[in-house]
Fold:
Amino acid sequence: MAPVLHIVDAPGSYRSSKAIAAGLFCALNVQRSDALLTSDLSPLGGSALVYPYMRINGEIVVGDNACARFLASSARNALVPPAPMGQQAAARMAEIDAVIDASASMLAPPALAMHDNMLSGAFDAAMCARCRDALLVNLKATDEGLKTKTFLCGDAITLADVVVCVDVFPAFAHAFTEADRKRVPNVTRWFTTVVNHPHFAKVLGGAPKTPKALAALPTRKLQEAAAPAKADKAAAKKPAGEKKGGGGAEQKKKGGGGAEQKKKGGGADAKKAGGSNQPSSGGGVDIPKTVEQFGEWFSQVCTKGELIEYYDVSGCYILRPWSYTIWEHIKDFFDAEIKKLGVQNCYFPMFVTKDVLEKEKDHVEGFAPEVAWVTKSGESDLEVPLAIRPTSETVMYPVFAKWIRSHRDLPLKLNQWCNVVRWEFKHPTPFIRTREFLWQEGHTAHANKKSADDEVITILKLYARIYEELLACPVIQGVKSEKEKFAGGLYTTTVEAFIPTTGKGVQGGTSHNLGQNFAKMFNIEFESEEKGASKGQKNLVWQNSWGLTTRTIGVMIMVHGDDNGLVVPPRVAPHQIVIVTIPNSKMSKEELDAMDAAAEKLSGDLEAPGAEPANPFNAIRSKTDLRSNYTPGWKYNYWEMRGVPIRCEIGPKDMANKACVFVRRDTREKTFCSWSEAKATATALLAKMQAEMLERARKQTQEQCCTVTKWEDFVPALDNRCMVLTPWHESVEVEELVKTKSSAESDGGAAKTLCIPFNQPPLPAGTPCFVSGKPATKWALWGRSY
Structure:
């Protein structure tokens, strides 16, 4: 275990948080002390002490930034470039130092003055407002620089992010209202990303709530959350992510929390067990699901719902078991379906040489900005740089040319489940836009176009089934415009999902007909069997590729999540039912054991396969939570935050009646039944919940899809968070015109074609394009998108 390093700070100060956070990144055990060592020293040689400071090996390091710098440079880590520094590393270190120095002079003083005044007991609103306004002005340059970056210096968290995050933390925690945050949206996004990193969460407690107005603060100390010893002790008693009075509590609403059992099935048992109508700990989001705070809400749901953990490399996230299990359910469904079509699974390497990647010009141009390259092995430069696959066409097709010789080798249908890397420069968002993601990619070769066309649609319909039957998310099927199609392909079909809260579309999955373009590039030919064909005549194959990613999970979260956390559709839920017992202090050990045994027995009954193998809820995935160190109310919140579809409650009165209570996560609807009826009741409830979640989401999507025939109505519809169906003269030039005009006329962002829907309304001859006035050729669906 690393030795303990002490940092001494003034009571009420938060500035030592920089050193404590830096220590965590460096695997150093830094603990705070409030001791006033009046006889110890004066770091400046006078009588006054200067805080914070550290005494290390007989020397004294003074100041918050100096302490953080000392710790970062004392261990080999990613916060600063390691010594000895080459020219590039020295330039990066200079960049980090410049950011830290700018923050010390422009950000820290107003933030510190404002925070000290709020805690002083003599709150001066005017002074604090001046400090807040100065901060917002000084953050403008930083906001501009973060438009194309995730972190302040480079692609990962550095010491600059540590220092600036702590400098501006008081402003975000106590001063920056929703309107203020809109003035610096990129800084807000950066702050949310950094402060939710596990090391910062341990020091600062995660992303703070958005304050409604400037106000005096109770004299609490921010640094209390920054003491590792206290945090570790508390963690032993509470799960990670717990907050006092955790949100997500169903008990906030009348009739919620399973504690309202004055009706049949529980009575006073729940109240005695702590499951009252008041919020209990156990997790929960404290940011509402609104368009203004959607990004922060989404981040909290992903972390507190135990879907992801943030990682040190920008745009990369750790998929925790809860989210990976959801992905496995998607994978199991799709894998079984494509095997019915004769598709076989395989695996190809992730590396591709530069010359092979660049063989298809249009294809590589489409992916060039996103390609990550391996150029070194240890300290030696590679003779030939290797690209990490952004997709596998150029990896697989040279081998297709070896394997395909005759019509008897066709169709060739392969699929691989793997990861790919696309070095996105846009703002990373868990599941939705990441630099590394999991997916399946299918690659097939056919003897003729009809065979390829048929498969494209078959796969697209399977993608639609995943979204609608498994994830309860409606999608619109269509074909991409020429501008938006897969680079190098003949045409691209797509399923487009929609997020009602933000009014943005999400490309949910694509199935491409690649034509014969790649076959020409890689000489994938076969001997024809067509009548009249000369012996040995060679034909080019027709090829398809199709892919679905972990973006599916992001869509599910955004569509169904609520102010209390995640809501997982039953078909993909890791646990479809969680059973919570409600003991009370009057129960004997024998009665408690009997209650636990009844819960385990009920769980086994739910899991046992029924008489309908085709029913997706024939065998229910059940979990029994018998942890005795948590109250029922805490457990309700814990599982609600994670979106378990149904909670089952068993209290003393339920034991006497051999009954239980089922509570739906999405509607809080309660159903009372006997143990003997539990399996049939639960099966029906899960099926009903699955169907109703899809129907609600479909209704929301339909309500936010409008038809527009004139340009003057187009941007207002977008600003009203709608997808827009318009008559369109299909051309790249007109699409670029829409992008330019919509961006110029609104701060909401540019519009793009989401797809040309398969379901086309009638288009009378002569109907003008909504923007160019030329004769319209199609109805196109437009929107803003992730």
The first strand starts at residue 4 and ends at 8. The chain has 26 helices and 27 strands. The chain has a mean pLDDT of 85. The first helix runs from residue 17 to 25.
